Amino acid sequence: MTAELTLIPQYIVSGITSGSIYALIALGFSLIYNASRIVNFAQGEFVMLGALLTISFSQERGLPLWAGAIAAVLFVTTVGFLLESGPLRRAKSKNHLILVMLTVGASIFIQGTSMLIWGKDSKTLPPIGGYEPIRILNASIIPQTIFILGVAGSFLFLLSIFFYHTRTGKAIRAVAEYPEGAALLGIPVRHLVMLSFGLSGALGALAGILVTPLTTMSYQCGLMLGLKGFAAAVLGGFGSFLGSVLGGLTLGLMESLGAGLISSTYKDAIAFIMLLGILFCKPTGIIGEAKTHRV
Amino acid sequence: MLLGNRSSIIILLLLLGFIWLTAKNDYIFTTANLLAIKIISVTGLNILIGATGQVSIGHAAFMGITAYMSAILSSTYSVPVWMSCLISILVVGIVALIIAIPTLRLEGNYLVMATLGFNIVVQIIMNQWESVTGGPSGFAGIPRLSLGTFRIENDRQFFWVIWGVALFLIWITLNLENTKVGRAFKAIRANKVASEVSGIAVHKYRSVAFIISAIYAGIAGFFYAHYMTFISPKTFGILTSLQWLTMSVLGGMGNTWGGILGTSFLTVLPEFLHKLEDLHILFYGSILMGMLIFCPEGLVPALVKLSNAFGHGKINNANQTINTRNSNVIAINHDNKRLFLPSPKNSAEAVIKLEQVSLNFGGLRVLHNITLEFPSNAIHAIIGPNGAGKTTLLNVICAIVEANEGSIKLLENGQNLLLNRYSTHLIAQKIGRTFQVSQIFPGMTVLEHVLIGMHKDIRENLMAGLMGLPSFRKKVQLYEEEALNLLDMFGLSEKAFIYADNLSLFEHKLLEMARAIAGRPVFVLLDEPAGGLSSMEKSDIGWLITKISQSGIGVIFIDHHMDMVSNLANRVVVLHQGMVIADGSPREISNNPEVIGAYLGHQKNMSFSITHGTTFYEQSRIISGN
């Protein structure tokens, strides 16, 4: 066995780890897209904000890490609400392209503001359970990885319960399927759209908090993470919840295996080459299906 | 427009001359030169937005590709500069083609996504392929430009070169708007489906627009590289693409002058506010958001609107002769009207032939085993209850929807005119079409609608058009005259230069019919041409349908007005639940018990229907031929 092949378990573990982060971000994209048919390009900014706010709350304001994290998630949830009820709802034109570009504008706006607040330097959070790696099979893993998998996994589980077994969750799915129909049935579509923005803010923030101990975070990082989550969402089939999770994991694995076995130089390009590939070959994604529309 | 294109260009030239004469230091020239480069890119981006209604967040990548290619070719491989310019622009064109073909086929946000991903990939390659590109630290020592033996050494010399190029491209872009290509771009953005059924190859035009816009960015990249003599990947990232987009949004998306204004504003303003350095990103974010929320149409269109509101504007400065034309607008005067109808290319007998056509939407059977022939020498009516599949049948004939089974042919002298080229716009060149809900092009004049209908027949010299030559203008006037004649027949010539959005429902129906026959089709398919109209208007539509048929164009129309159907049609086809249940003369149909059953329910329910619904009652009266 060559040295590279013995490292495969290591690659798989790190692939699943970053994959679950991408899945959380991709879910945020899908949530908003389903509720409003808008691709929210500010999703990555939620991730960045979540991480940097946690750093500020826990390191500068002296809150315990968990409290800082909860405060940050709540804060970013509010940012999500505000994005929807502010710019998007106030926009004079409801043209779809204008609204999507508004989220691009919001993304740059949040980036600019964050640079003023936190500066240009990268910051980090201490990993849960310290830096001492644990060995499982051939892979050595720091405890944060297990923590990420645990938290991301349980949130995915909670979300699936939310979507399939609660009234509100079912209503959100109904809005995704057919907004006019849902409105006619008395489902408060406007509130659910807003809720979706908030929820996706929370998911983004969570992803940011989880990933920061491994990668560090600065005002610019949101963009790249957001775009990878976006690539994952497209890969899985934009708007599909299961697709987002599968897309995220696939992307994480491909990235980590590609970087490990082929070349780490182009690690970041892998996501976007896959994105272009899937757009060219099967734009509906892994599990998406073509939709027909009436003329 | 507040000012004509010519006067605006002259003002721009005067401004440049003023800068040339008064600017004391080279810094101002550097800013002006970089401004010209950005204006070229933004102008290109606006062509794309104008033609597709979609945006790209990846055009900086195209700029980067030419910049790097030309730099590498001319310094590493000592290729002559202008030669490397040609090669790199060619490469950008090809790359754009590869991106355009799969992505522009799709609706929605795919272009944004694909261009964004593309830009990131390109930037990563620039950063990582160090042996060739010099990596993150950049590529230095790029040779300067020279014109013959004259080397362009400093900012002042470059000033006129780059502004010459920029003005030339602006001039071409403005003239493009007056050519048939420019008109097709506008139509596609305004209404894709209507463009397709007017015979415009939507996908082809969108791809062309994308390639042109990429080439503009490429030209900008070439001059940037050889002007700065140093390039680094940072310049060609998505932040640059986003800045261009912001400039376009600020001035007015798709508007050339808007782009110039937006770019100038966003380039010059930060120069005045030197402390802005740290606020730069926030600045762009705020402008982009603010504009999109409060003034999504952009500054220039908003200003034009404002000036029109104060009565300074003309709707169109084109052909003034029309204003002297007097015609009766309110209703069509059947007797006095000079008849102008484009005659079909040959008078040979044509026939639309459907054989065992079936269509399912998922589990829903919409059309079942339909075999029909429509000869072009008659007026055919298709009737049937709601949901019978009437509109779908028309959609299948003009390939908006593809049938699951069966064949559809348009035979002329026994030859199939549709062949295997099964695409909407090619079929549209033989079969015109109107819609139940009128599909007009918002923001385009009535005259332009007809010119779009004539699209495939318009032969014009694109080069002459781009240069804005007078000979081109004359040629265009001939076509406009033809279009006006057609509008005259439809009672719309008085409104030729009004935006179609401002017309009434009746006028929309008329305009759609005029557009459908402007391309001299073999057939027209009219979907409820009289839907929602008054009886006066209905009779006008009926008169027009007869005239269209008399001119040799086959007519198939859907309608619910039984009086109109029996007066006009030679033959009536009744659809019910996707099947043909009756086919014959209006008299035969009105006595057919199955038809009465389909409309009213079978005998048992009949008394109920008649007593409880006046519309049903009316229909039964009409159907029974009374």
Main attributes?
heterodimer; A: 295 residues; mainly alpha; two-stranded antiparallel ribbon; 12 helices; 75% helix; globular; disordered C terminus; B: 626 residues; alpha/beta; 4-stranded antiparallel beta sheet; 26 helices; 14 strands; 12% strand; elongated
What topology emerges from the helices and strands here?
The complex is a heterodimer of chains A (295) and B (626).
Chain A: H1 3-6, H2 8-36, H3 43-60, H4 65-90, H5 96-118, E1 134-136, E2 139-141, H6 143-165, H7 167-177, H8 179-184, H9 189-215, H10 221-236, H11 241-262, H12 267-281
Antiparallel strand pairs in A: 1-2
Helix pairs in contact in A: 2-6, 2-7, 2-9, 2-10, 2-11, 3-4, 3-5, 3-9, 3-10, 4-9, 6-7, 6-9, 7-9, 10-11, 10-12, 11-12
Chain B: H1 5-22, H2 26-52, H3 59-76, H4 81-103, H5 110-128, H6 130-133, E1 139-140, E2 146-147, E3 150-151, H7 155-176, H8 180-190, H9 192-197, H10 202-228, E4 230-231, H11 238-251, H12 256-272, H13 280-294, H14 299-309, E5 350-361, E6 364-375, E7 379-383, H15 390-397, E8 405-412, E9 415-416, H16 424-428, E10 431-433, H17 446-453, H18 462-467, H19 470-489, H20 505-518, E11 523-527, H21 535-550, E12 554-558, H22 562-568, E13 571-576, E14 579-584, H23 586-590, H24 593-600, H25 603-612, H26 614-623
Parallel strand pairs in B: 7-12, 7-13, 10-11, 11-12
Antiparallel strand pairs in B: 1-4, 2-3, 5-6, 5-8, 8-9, 13-14
Kindly state the percentage of residues in helix of chain A.
over 70%
Taking the alpha carbons of the first and last residues of chain A, their distance comes to: 59 Å
Low-confidence stretches of chain A: 290-295
Number of helices of chain A: 12
Oligomer: heterodimer
Largest sheet of chain B: 6 strands, mixed
Q: How would you spell out the order of helices and strands of chain A? A: HHHHHEEHHHHHHH
DSSP E strands of chain B, number: 14
Strand content of chain B is 5-15%
